[in-house]
Amino acid sequence: MSKVGRTISEGQFLKTIFKKPLAYADRALANIYNYFKFWHKPINNHKIMMLTSRGSYNCHPRAIADEIIRQKLPYEIVWVVRTENIESKENFPKNVKIILRGSKEFYEEAATSKVWIDNSVTFSYLFAKKRKEQVLIQTWHGTFGLKKFDETVNNNKYWIKKAYQEGAQTDYCLTNCLFEEELFRSTFWKNAEMLPYGHPRNDILFKSDTIEVKQLVHDIRKRYRLNNEERVLLYAPTFREEQNSDLYELPYEDVIKALEERFGGKWVIMVRYHFMDRKLKSLDAGNPYVINATEYPDIQDLMLLADIGVTDYSSWIYDYFFTKKPGFLYVPDIEEYTKKDREFLFPIEITPFPIAKNQRELCDQIACFDEKKYDIDYQRFYQEMNCYEDGHAAERVVDKLKEIMG
């Protein structure tokens, strides 16, 4: 493709001519150009395009891709990355084709892939319109859906518009519980077929005793220079619309003392900020108690390493839930958060995780952790969600892909 063709395809043509950016006109021109350039090309019935909101090799699409590769299936996997991830090729299997989101190659590959697999509403954000012969599988990126995200609470009207657009194109939604099925049907995926398979990214959490997982944990420890005696508290807070670094920081030394008092051993705190909060990665620089893992591509791996998990409102803790290891919620701004950021679909008090509204309470909750109560609360919450996770979700998805792709 010529240089001019590329700038048109990627929505950059008019801005190279006029001093004043013409974003809407450029986008309209790009949509028309890409439609006539690519959307008539033959569909490759053995090609799958995958992407995630983070733009790295992570989440449910990663687990599905890994299972395809494990089974040595003759599928071409095309993975869409963000600009900041384009150089991180060491995180990808060798037989995965990497392309940049929003590029000319993206639109061509999207037009010719039989299946699209997303974990958000990214295809609609990138103005990719599915052809009738193509199949879109929505995996989403949360578990148990703590935070509301529909138009009744989301102030980002553009996101809502894109969510409805992608929902209208979606053929299948992955779910891991009846609660989630009802949530998806009541929001943007009213006409999609629910696939009650479980969540592929959680499969690895059921396999902690395998050789592969033990090697993965060993490699992570080596990467972050952890010795075998050091125990890990994983702290990964959610993204907030209004930035306030004070809400993210913990009394690290006091937390370490509480951990030693209750659980014994030597502890470190591994911090992983939301990918939209990457600028916070220097917040704890130089702190001897903290290891920053914000750039690590997939939090699921870090859950295997962690002995204890702490978050605020992030959904990862509801994946970590399946490890049955202790978890805590640190929510210093819960009243403000539920008013300004997100409302909850259910009270966090019904979860098994002890709740702390200030730093002192967090240390006390850790020091006084009641394992028997946690186990009882765990079983009750699992049953209330009508959950059917069992560690074989990716296998079921791949069986469905075989059915779709022939």
From TrEMBL:
Which domain of life, per UniProt?
Answer: Bacteria
Signal peptide positions on this chain: none
Q: Does the keyword Transferase apply?
A: yes
Q: Which UniProt keywords apply?
A: Cell membrane, Membrane, Teichoic acid biosynthesis, Transferase
- Membrane found in the keyword field: yes
Q: Where in the cell is it found?
A: Cell membrane
Look up the record and report any one GO term of the cellular component aspect: plasma membrane
User: Which Gene3D superfamilies is this protein grouped with?
Assistant: 3.40.50.11820, 3.40.50.12580
A single Pfam family, by name? Glyphos_transf
The membrane topology term of the UniProt record is: Peripheral membrane protein
Question: Which GO terms label this protein's molecular function in UniProt?
Answer: CDP-glycerol glycerophosphotransferase activity
GO biological process terms held by the UniProt record: teichoic acid biosynthetic process
Q: Which family does it belong to?
A: Belongs to the CDP-glycerol glycerophosphotransferase family.
**Protein name according to UniProt:** CDP-glycerol glycerophosphotransferase family protein
The organism is Candidatus Galacturonatibacter soehngenii
